[in-house]
Amino acid sequence: MLGLRMSPTLIGSEIYRGSTYGPKHPLAIPRVSTALDLIRALGWVEPAQYRDSPRATPEQLTRFHAPDYIAALMRAEATQLVPEADRARFHIGAHGNPVYPEVFRRPATGAGGTLLAAELTRHGGVVHVPGGGTHHGRPDRASGFCYLNDAVLGLMGWLGQGLTNILYLDLDAHHGDGVQDAFHGDPSVFTLSVHEGARWPFTGEAGDVAGGHARNIPVPEGYNDSEAGWVLHHAILPIIRHLRPQAIMIQAGADAVAEDPLSRLALSNNAYRATLAAVMGLAPRLILLGGGGYNPWSVARCWAGLWGVLNGFAPPARLPPAAEAVLRGLTWARAAGRNPPEHWFTTLADPPQPPVPVRPEIRALCATALRDLPEPPEAMESVA
Prior knowledge:
Layout: E1 9-12, H1 32-41, E2 50-52, H2 58-61, H3 67-79, H4 84-90, H5 105-120, E3 125-129, H6 150-160, E4 166-170, H7 177-182, E5 189-196, E6 214-219, H8 225-243, E7 247-251, H9 269-279, E8 285-289, H10 296-311, H11 321-328, H12 343-346, H13 360-369
């Protein structure tokens, strides 16, 4: 399998700056804008590497989403109101999916970024879209803070180019249900999700193989770096090497880190970087998305660190003053934000976790994931 030799591209947008889901929502925090500011403050992106995200058009969105749902989402933005019929049918303004000023434009920008990433990697390469990763979105309704499913649209973009062997790897603390269901039984897209078991959306059990072309690893509370290393080497990498995909999309939701308020997992951001470093050379095309993550410091530090991995940059022992200022400028209304630890301001990499024994449950989950893997599609294609 060829490594990724092209200079990585970073796709972002100013629409995320100042846009929130409302003061009491978990997504009241700045995430994409902070990650981009931190990357720039580190001097880690050249002007030629950055692309501003286009906004996906209704025509592009209705390749997956129902036209009446897209029309309802656009109406909600225009009027800032949702009729009860739309609320009940489309879950706009309900179930944690509020109406806010950019309720169509913001997710459409994320979708446009992922669609652009698929086009930019048509002939190989790597693209990071921190505004992507809305993996719960359904064809006809909002779900789990996700109004659109940019990951599905990006994967469809690759399929439209003629690819027949794609792997989607989801590292978010919550199961990537919307993506798995979109490609249920489709031999062209294999979905692999590592997520917290018994947590919303309460799907993705170990025995759920979605018609044969998915594997799920629902890890227990307290999942740590030692166990993430085991999952990487005893499930993720063996599956990728078996399938030999033409393209890999990674959803890197940062809510599996120890300090995130919406999970009970215990990873450091080192585990994310180690997984990306091991996976990124195993296909000629790679798209890295954002996703969940509800602590502004941990999300920005994680996603900036992943961009560093793509470029071969090691996290500095101490952040330069400009990068430190980005992190010191954040506020967070939750209790953990009232007295943040100093290393959230001064470092990019979390402190290393001491090695601990891997629990038998983790070993068993990995063994289950490797059983009866499908054979990769025969039509393989290489990129020079």
